[in-house]
Amino acid sequence: MSSKDWIEKDYYATLGVQKSASSDEIKKAYRKLARESHPDHNPGDPKAEERFKAVSEAYAVLGDDAKRREYDEMRSLFGSGAFRRGARGAGQPGGGVPFDVSDLFGGAAGGDARFGGGGFTDLFSSIFAGGAGGPARPRGPVRGRDVETEVVLDFDDAVRGVTLPLALRAPGVCDTCHGDGAKPGTRPKACPVCHGAGVTTRNQGSFSFSEPCHTCQGVGTVVEEKCPECLGTGGVTKTRTLNVRFPAGVADGQRIRLAGRGEPGERGGPAGDLFVQVKVRPDELFGRSGDDLTLTVPITFAEAVLGTDLRVPTLDGAVTLRVPPGTPSGRVLRARGKGVQRRDGRAGDLLVTLDVLVPAAVSDEARAALESFAAQTPPAAREHLDARLRRVG
């Protein structure tokens, strides 16, 4: 931004806050306005895009405590009219007490402590040259935005791992010009205004200001013959197909990062990243708890009492588990190494929960057998209930 922006633009009004607003109030106002005016939420609306740029510019200054203090001081100084063209001074009709600019800002020797001890020139260089009194920096390469998409995997594919083609329609590097925006057979040339520096310097009275070159937008180069495909932007919206490897054991909700597969950067900057959000379809048989697979298997009352050998399926076959006599409902049997493959090469377990079924109806023969069984079986121990039952009568 130029020095004129600092003097003429009211960033507080842009964000809709008072000059006394706290940092949190400024941040809250910026986030609200940025969401409302973001180009992604207002496609094809140039006014919303300009509004978003203005809000971002205002927050870049007011959101930085040091820049905000300098901005306030600069606005206060110029707002008084002391440095405007035609301001009255000593020897002019209606003029006040004569003053010297060097006296106001501490002179050439020492300077005012408010401005870092370097006087008015250092103040301007700090504000308009990117801070810290350093030289103005051109707008260099900008990293592309990250892209996020979602893919749904079958349960088996998530557990075993799979490679799938992923089709994305998003901005990408132009295949015709390979991202430089120039017509094939030509190349971008050094900017004729800044001669490749990316910045221009202009004088205003006794002061000199450097700012990004308006001709090349701070890049240092211009495209004379634009690429017919991307019209000089270096990027186009296109459908890309990527072969994405989902590792064994990928979990529901996990994000996989593919570096450099997002949107292309601007002005030669690196591309952003692609993040793939994984959703896993539930399996009709198995569940999952971390690296362990879970399975519920029903058994009969007789199997629970007498014990049995139980054959259960796994992801790659079957396994036989021993149900010991007297097994209660809800007991968990473990088949080691039959779960999800871990990254270190080991595997989780298969956890089998036994569910003892109680029949809703039995035959006369079965009822007689159960009554005989009950007569020969001691009742369940309920001593811990007796005291409470005696109190309630």
Describe this structure in words.
It is built from eleven helices and 15 strands. It is of the alpha+beta class. It folds into three domains: 3-81 and 101-128, Helix Hairpins (Orthogonal Bundle), CATH 1.10.287.110; 140-177 and 232-282, HSP40/DNAj peptide-binding domain (Sandwich); 287-375, HSP40/DNAj peptide-binding domain (Sandwich), CATH 2.60.260. A four-stranded mixed β-sheet has the order 10-11-15-14. Strands 1-9-8 form a three-stranded mixed β-sheet. The radius of gyration is 37 Å and the shape is elongated. The chain starts with a helix and ends with a helix.
Which CATH class of the largest domain applies here?
Mainly Alpha
Largest sheet: 4 strands, mixed
Strand coverage percent: 15-25%
Query: Got a strand count?
Result: 15
Poorly predicted runs: 80-138
CATH topology of the largest domain: Helix Hairpins
CATH superfamily of the largest domain: DnaJ domain
Cα-to-Cα separation, first versus last residue: 87 Å
Which outline best applies? elongated
Q: Report Rg.
A: 37 Å
Side by side, the strands of the main sheet go 10-11-15-14
